């Protein structure tokens, strides 16, 4: 397979490929398997795949099967290696049809999807299909001409479906009719010339319920000439010069756009540099070759036109340099739009942004932010470094059509500080086809008379689309309900026309589903539009008789008003158009029949006489009440039937016959005969009386009644029969007597009263019990009537008396071993030859309650969780009883047994033991129950069974401390790590449910104590000093997940005498003032020795060691309280030094008595 490089006119084809393609768009997974079809050619018009055009990078994973006409996946697709996604594949097919060659080049836009795949949208082509068709001529130098009105070729074979209707636009040279393209006027083809036209068609695709109508547009070029590469090249080169068609797009698609790398430049340049100073070299990349890849660079100031005079770019190499000396104080920032343009056709461009900052690099470091980012603008964000604005949320044109962003650019200058500038960015949201058309009404209802002429408008369907442009252009089509093609909807206007006649009688109402499809790519459609066309009836149907001609018979003696026949006609119309009335035609005076003009019943209007007239032939007419009146006629044939009014008469009133009693059955006795004067009368005979025991029978034969012997005669029973014979014609009758005398014979056999006997006997009856007496009778006498009984088979359990027929038991019976016996008993007389009869005796053994119930197990064991709800099933016991009926029917009960003090019940029928109350394993861990299986016999028998139910533990009990609060006494100065207490909680659960973990949850901050998680041992982590802190309060928690309990621990330190008393030197100054009138001398306690011991448990002892020999100061040795001696109550000054000892500590203090006069 080779790749062509012509600038061809590309023919887009509308196709479907393995459910992947819809209107040229192929969606495949990155993980698509081998042989997944990507593209293919239309096979309906004898097309062959000629060439495939695809990007070079697709050669790794795409292959072509020319014979099958497909392009398929051959290897794994890796999105990171795709140079473009989607990418385009073209298939070139050579098609031949009706003398024309058609060049079909189909375009497939292939979208690859996967985790690492990115897609971009592509624009919808102007037309759905483009075709180039060349008419082959036999002469290379003479041009061919087509006369006006002549057909060129069939369009349908080249379209993806059957065209329902097409219309030619943009050309007066052609028109479409009945599937072919015709020339309007005589057309002579010119060499190397293509005529162009646009064709708009509604195409029917799919089959059956999946059929749908889709609008398509085709751009067609038609010419004359050979279908050779050279000639095609000339034609297509000319076509490429036009602005229409895919040619120009194909040419542009070859020229790729250049790309800047990077898309944004930020540079700094120092001010005061001379003109021509290099700034930056711009670099864009174009993958095209030749002129299409040669680039030219341009720059243009974005915000301030003065910047254009300060910088220049070399158009060939992209080098940017200064034109003049720059002054940062005049303008410090310059922003340019940089454009790179290639020299391809058409010329492609790429743009970038270029920032010049006249400051130092720090001053030129620009950060961007959006100032007004609140409200609807919060869907955008800006890269603070690059200034690239991106969306961070969904934008909806139908909600907000345009945004205005205020962007601020800040440099990072430090002296004199950062500078900023703002710019307004206007963002216009382009329309996306995200809204389906909406019908103006949920259901359209229109009434159309059934005689409306075709090609008339009956309804206008409207739908609107919130999108814009081509996305909002709505096309209408009929999806379903138009099975007979009687309606047409204009795809552009939505006007619905009647295109063929309606018939109210065939279909009174049509429900048509309309699809409104917009012009987006891919299009969105709404299929909820319903149109109800109600067909109005017109009087266009004459009445039709359900049967013609009508035939009826009637007896001549029926009464007046008797209904004979119901004449019925139907009218396919409705209302008054179908309401009928009837009348008789072709009647004579005194006509004996009339008709009910509304119901159509014909009745007798006068007495009938068959002997006078036995046949009538007349007509009936049915007419409707429509306008104009319509009617129909039918004929009626009426036959009068004869009435039987004559009695049959026997030719002989009495008959006398003789017959031997051993005459064979079927022997003829006599033939009787009677005559009836009525016409067509049939006389039948029967024996009405005297036929004792039905010994005779009579049959009608050749007009007479033949009496024959039906059963054997018995002389001993009947010696004469007097038969009464009746002759009847159905309504009238006559009788005659037949006397038959019987002669004697004797033959009888024993006869049992029944051929089968059934008796019952209890299984506990003793041996020799008489079960039943069987007897037979014999109508003979003597030995011929003496009967002997015997059993045909030997059954050891029973015997029969040969003379009396009494059946007795010979062994004990057991119902559980055998429930019934069948005996064949024969009664034989003693005549010659002997005759006998046989009967059958069925003996049913009745069950007696002689078996107790038996459990399937000796004992039962069950387990149940203690938290199960009431009525939970624990275990099921089962017992059987060999007896039957009520004797073998077993029920279960705890009555008389043990039900766990009412904690359990047992279902009487199923034996299921269920809980009756909530269980608690901690109270009762195991139950020993006893149940009984009791039958319903009389007396009832029962059997006990033991049931052991083990209650499984559920963690339903939290750990429990002995008390909520504990006091723990700990001596201070205990060594670190000493176990000061053992915390213990109990859990009534068992196993893992009873495992307890301990932890301190409060009061241990900072961490003073440590609690072992499993043992509960509480240890001190630091030195405990009573004088620092005398008590600690912690909260401990015992956990048996998920249940917890807490307790408060008061850890109280016990003081130790580890501190000496403290007493500093002190002075007591006493100033006494004595007069003749008063004295201020204190007589009570004046103070206390200022001694202190940190150990509160210590009792201090105070004493004077020296200096108080005169007892000037009185000291309480226990409390340290001081009083002055009365000896000091004078005016003499005194100073004394004393030494006091406190619990062994000695301190000196100065006692001074001052003179109050000084």
From TrEMBL:
Where, per UniProt, does this protein localize?
Answer: Membrane
Instruction: Give the InterPro entries listed for this entry.
Output: Cadherin-like_dom (IPR002126), Cadherin-like_sf (IPR015919), Cadherin_CELSR1-3_9th (IPR056286), Cadherin_CS (IPR020894)
Question: What is the residue range of the signal peptide feature?
Answer: 1-23
Checking SUPFAM superfamilies in the record gives: Cadherin-like
| One GO CC term on file | plasma membrane
Molecular functions (GO terms)? calcium ion binding
The chain positions of domain Cadherin read 261-439, 440-545, 546-650, 651-752, 753-855, 856-961, 962-1063
**UniProt keyword annotations, A-Z:** Calcium, Disulfide bond, EGF-like domain, Glycoprotein, Membrane, Repeat, Signal, Transmembrane, Transmembrane helix
Q: Which SMART domains does its entry note?
A: CA
Offer one example of a GO biological process linked to this entry: homophilic cell adhesion via plasma membrane adhesion molecules
Q: What is this protein called?
A: Cadherin domain-containing protein
Species of provenance: Perca fluviatilis
């Amino acid at each position: 397979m080779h790749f062509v490089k012509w600038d061809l006119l590309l023919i887009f084809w509308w196709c479907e490929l393995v459910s992947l393609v819809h209107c040229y768009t192929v969606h495949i997974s990155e993980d698509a398997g081998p042989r997944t079809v990507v593209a293919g050619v239309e096979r309906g018009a004898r097309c062959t795949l000629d060439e495939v055009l695809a990007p070079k990078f697709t050669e790794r994973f795409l292959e072509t099967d020319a014979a099958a006409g497909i392009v398929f996946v051959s290897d794994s697709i890796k999105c990171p290696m795709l140079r473009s996604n989607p990418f385009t594949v073209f298939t070139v097919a050579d098609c031949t049809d009706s003398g024309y060659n058609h060049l079909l080049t189909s375009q497939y836009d292939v979208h690859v999807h996967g985790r690492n795949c990115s897609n971009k949208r592509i624009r919808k082509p102007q037309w759905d299909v483009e075709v180039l068709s060349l008419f082959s001529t036999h002469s290379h130098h003479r041009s061919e001409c087509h006369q006006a009105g002549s057909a060129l070729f069939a369009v349908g074979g080249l379209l993806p479906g059957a065209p329902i209707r097409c219309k030619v636009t943009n050309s007066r040279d052609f028109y479409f009719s009945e599937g072919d393209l015709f020339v309007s006027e005589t057309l002579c083809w010119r060499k190397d010339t293509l005529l162009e036209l646009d064709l708009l068609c509604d195409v029917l695709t799919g089959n059956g319920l999946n059929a749908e109508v889709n609008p398509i547009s085709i751009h067609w070029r038609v010419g004359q000439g050979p279908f050779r590469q050279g000639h095609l090249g000339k034609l297509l080169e000319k076509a490429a010069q036009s602005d229409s068609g895919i040619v120009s797009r194909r040419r542009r698609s070859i020229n790729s756009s250049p790309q800047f790398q990077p898309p944004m430049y930020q540079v700094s340049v120092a001010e005061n540099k001379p003109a021509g100073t290099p700034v930056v070299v711009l670099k864009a990349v174009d993958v095209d070759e030749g002129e299409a890849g040669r680039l030219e660079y341009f720059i243009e100031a974005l915000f301030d036109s003065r910047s254009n005079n300060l910088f220049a770019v070399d158009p060939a190499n992209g080098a940017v340099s200064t034109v003049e000396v720059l002054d940062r104080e005049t303008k410090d920032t310059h922003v340019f739009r940089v454009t790179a343009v290639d020299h391809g056709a058409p010329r492609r461009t790429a743009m970038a942004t270029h920032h010049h900052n006249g400051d130092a690099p720090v001053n030129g470091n620009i950060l961007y932010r959006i100032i007004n980012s609140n409200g609807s603008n919060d869907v955008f964000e800006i890269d603070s470094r690059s200034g690239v604005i991106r969306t961070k949320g969904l934008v909806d044109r139908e909600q907000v059509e345009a945004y205005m962003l205020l962007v601020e650019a800040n440099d990072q200058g430090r002296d004199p500080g950062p500078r900023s500038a703002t710019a307004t960015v206007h963002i216009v949201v382009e329309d996306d086809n995200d809204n389906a058309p909406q019908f103006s009404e949920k259901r359209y209802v229109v009434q159309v008379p059934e005689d409306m002429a075709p090609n008339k408008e009956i309804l206008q369907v409207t739908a609107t689309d919130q999108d814009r442009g081509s996305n909002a252009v709505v096309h209408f089509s009929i999806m379903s309900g138009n099975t007979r093609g009687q309606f047409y909807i204009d795809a552009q206007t939505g006007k619905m026309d009647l295109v063929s006649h309606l018939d109210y009688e065939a279909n009174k109402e049509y429900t048509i589903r309309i699809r409104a499809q917009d012009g987006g790519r891919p299009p969105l459609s709404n299929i909820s539009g319903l149109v109800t066309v109600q067909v109005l009836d017109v009087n266009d149907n004459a009445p039709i008789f359900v049967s013609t001609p009508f035939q009826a018979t009637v007896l001549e003696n029926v009464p007046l008003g008797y209904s004979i026949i119901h004449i019925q006609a139907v009218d396919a119309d409705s209302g008054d158009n179908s309401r009928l009335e009837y009348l008789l035609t072709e009647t004579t005076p005194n006509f004996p029949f009339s008709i009910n003009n509304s119901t159509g019943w014909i009745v007798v209007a006068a007495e009938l006489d068959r002997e006078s007239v036995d046949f009538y032939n007349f007509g009936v007419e049915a007419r409707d009440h429509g306008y104009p009146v319509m009617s129909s006629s039918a004929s009626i044939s009426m036959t009068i039937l004869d009435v039987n009014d004559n009695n049959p008469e026997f030719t002989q009133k009495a008959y006398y016959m003789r017959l031997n009693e051993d005459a064979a059955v079927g022997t003829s006795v006599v033939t009787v005969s009677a005559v009836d004067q009525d016409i067509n009368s049939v006389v039948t005979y029967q024996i009405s009386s005297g036929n004792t025991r039905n010994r005779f029978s009579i049959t009608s034969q050749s007009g007479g009644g033949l009496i024959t012997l039906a059963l054997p005669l018995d002389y001993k029973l009947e010696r004469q029969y007097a038969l009464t014979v009746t002759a009847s014609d159905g309504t009238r009758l006559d009788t005659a007597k037949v006397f038959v005398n019987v002669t004697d014979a004797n033959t009888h056999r024993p006869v049992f009263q029944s051929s089968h006997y059934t008796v019952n006997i209890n299984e506990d009856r003793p041996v020799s019990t008489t079960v039943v007496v069987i007897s037979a009778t014999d109508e003979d006498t003597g030995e011929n009537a003496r009967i002997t009984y015997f059993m045909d088979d030997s059954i050891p359990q029973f015997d029969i008396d040969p003379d009396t027929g009494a059946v007795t038991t010979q062994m004990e019976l057991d119902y559980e071993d055998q429930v019934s016996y069948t005996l064949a008993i024969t009664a034989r007389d003693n005549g010659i030859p002997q005759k006998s009869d046989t009967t059958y005796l069925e003996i049913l053994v009745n069950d007696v309650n002689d078996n107790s119930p038996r459990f399937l197990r000796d004992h039962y064991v069950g387990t149940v969780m203690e938290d199960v709800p009431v009525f939970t099933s624990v275990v099921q016991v089962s017992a059987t009883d060999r007896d039957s009926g009520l004797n073998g029917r077993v029920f279960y009960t705890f009555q008389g047994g043990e039900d766990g003090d009412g904690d359990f019940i047992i279902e009487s029928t199923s034996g299921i033991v269920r809980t009756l109350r909530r269980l608690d394993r901690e109270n009762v861990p195991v139950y020993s129950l006893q149940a009984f299986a009791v039958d319903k016999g009389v007396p009832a028998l029962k059997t006990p069974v033991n049931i052991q139910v083990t209650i499984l533990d559920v963690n339903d009990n939290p750990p429990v401390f002995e008390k909520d609060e504990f006091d723990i006494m700990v001596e201070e100065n205990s060594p670190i790590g000493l176990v000061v207490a053992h915390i213990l909680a109990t859990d009534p659960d068992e196993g893992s449910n009873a495992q307890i973990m301990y932890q301190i949850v409060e009061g241990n901050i900072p961490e003073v104590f440590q609690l072992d998680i499993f043992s509960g041992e509480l240890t001190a982590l630091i030195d405990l000093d009573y004088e620092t802190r005398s008590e600690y309060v912690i909260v401990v928690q015992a956990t048996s997940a998920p249940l917890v309990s807490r307790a408060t621990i008061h850890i109280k330190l016990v003081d130790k005498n580890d501190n000496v008393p403290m007493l500093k030197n002190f002075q007591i100054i006493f100033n006494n003032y004595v007069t003749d009138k008063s004295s201020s001398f204190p007589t009570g306690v004046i103070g206390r020795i200022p001694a202190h011991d940190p150990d509160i448990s210590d009792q201090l002892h105070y004493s004077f060691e020296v200096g108080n020999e005169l007892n000037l100061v009185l000291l309480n040795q226990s409390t340290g309280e001081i009083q002055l001696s009365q000896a000091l109550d004078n005016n003499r000054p005194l100073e004394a030094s004393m030494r006091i000892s406190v619990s062994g500590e000695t301190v000196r203090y100065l006692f001074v008595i001052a003179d109050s006069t000084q």
